[in-house]
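Researcher: Quick test of sequence recovery. Tokens follow.
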């Protein structure tokens, strides 16, 4: 998933500065044969566009997501106060090879090309909605959380429209909103598994891994940067130590220093040494996520040790998916700004997360 910020700063909607508590996500399509998101960004970034503004367009040629409003900004996309007050609105671009003949009816001159465009926008929408469900603690399968513009109208919360189902049905794509919600849930499940699926070493290897981390070396890893001793101390302080399982602000069971894998209600640890053993294994996993993003080019700037430690702390708390979104294609200054946005749990601003993000930012910008 690639998200490019292209805020519509001249659109009157952007200038209102109004924010919402996000309760749901609404999927739209543009309703015309324009696959290029840049066309809409150019036309809508205008003071004369007084009645429309969405949070993102998905380009039909590339699948790139162009974010046009901050996610918690009140958009003008649903045609009603209820939709605009509660929902993020995302528009998928449509194929150039369709021609509308009135209303929602159209003809298609190249089905193969059209379906390729629809496939790209659909997949990007799945990944984006999964990301937004994570950020705002939304259940994609809960009634009313993910809806189309058409479903919004049927529920009495949006203006009369038939998108995007009219496009999917007209092209006989096989896509449905029920299937879309299932795909978002499935993608979320896969992402959650991948958060912890870089297998931690077994106990016979654990002591050598612990020594390796604390000595800032790790054999057979490229690159070899790991969390520094100061970074370890920083992260342990941020997580705190709990010897009895408890739920975090996001509703997950945790134990020790923020360990979440296979934790269950009533679970206990014998002492802080056991908690630190779990923590040090987890640290290797999350340090390697940062290393992976450095080695594969997702992180494009040169990372110093303080930045590395701050990114590991962020990843440990928010997961590798959010880390990828935070750093992808951005310079260090932009990352330092955007890290402050990850401050919500269960859809609400959490003051502890606000403070943690600020401390991570301070560490990130601190000179070595």
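Model:
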């Amino acid at each position: 998933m690639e998200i490019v910020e292209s805020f519509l700063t001249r659109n009157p909607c952007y200038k209102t500065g109004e924010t919402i508590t996000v309760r749901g996500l609404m999927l739209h399509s543009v309703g015309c044969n324009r696959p290029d998101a840049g066309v809409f960004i150019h036309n809508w970034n205008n003071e004369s566009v007084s009645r429309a503004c969405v949070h993102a367009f998905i380009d039909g040629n590339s699948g790139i997501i162009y974010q046009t409003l901050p996610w918690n900004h009140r958009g003008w996309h649903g045609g009603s106060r209820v939709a605009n007050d509660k929902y993020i609105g995302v528009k998928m671009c449509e194929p150039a090879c369709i021609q509308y003949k009135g209303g929602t009816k159209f003809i298609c001159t190249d089905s193969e090309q059209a379906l390729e465009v629809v496939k790209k926008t659909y997949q990007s929408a799945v990944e984006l909605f999964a990301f937004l469900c994570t950020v705002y603690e939304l259940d994609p399968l809960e009634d009313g959380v993910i809806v189309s513009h058409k479903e919004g109208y049927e529920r009495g919360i949006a203006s009369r429209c038939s998108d995007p189902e009219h496009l999917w049905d007209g092209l006989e794509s096989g896509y449905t909103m029920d299937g879309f919600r299932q795909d978002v849930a499935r993608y979320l499940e896969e992402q959650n598994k991948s958060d912890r699926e870089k297998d931690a070493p077994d106990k016979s290897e654990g002591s050598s891994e612990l020594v390796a981390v604390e000595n800032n070396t790790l054999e057979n890893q490229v690159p070899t940067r790991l969390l520094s001793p100061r970074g370890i101390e920083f992260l342990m302080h941020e997580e705190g130590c709990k010897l009895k399982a408890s739920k975090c602000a996001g509703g997950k069971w945790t134990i020790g220093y923020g360990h979440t894998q296979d934790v269950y209600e009533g679970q206990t640890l014998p002492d802080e040494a056991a908690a630190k053993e779990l923590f040090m294994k987890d640290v290797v996993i999350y340090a390697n996520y940062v290393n992976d993003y450095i080695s594969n080019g997702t992180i494009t700037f040169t990372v110093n040790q303080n930045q590395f430690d701050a990114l590991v702390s962020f990843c440990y708390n928010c997961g590798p998916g959010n880390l990828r979104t935070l750093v992808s294609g951005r310079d260090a200054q932009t990352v330092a700004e955007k890290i402050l946005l990850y401050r919500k749990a269960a859809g609400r601003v959490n003051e502890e997360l606000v403070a943690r993000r600020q401390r991570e930012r301070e560490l990130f910008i601190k000179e070595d």
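The first strand starts at residue 3 and ends at 5.
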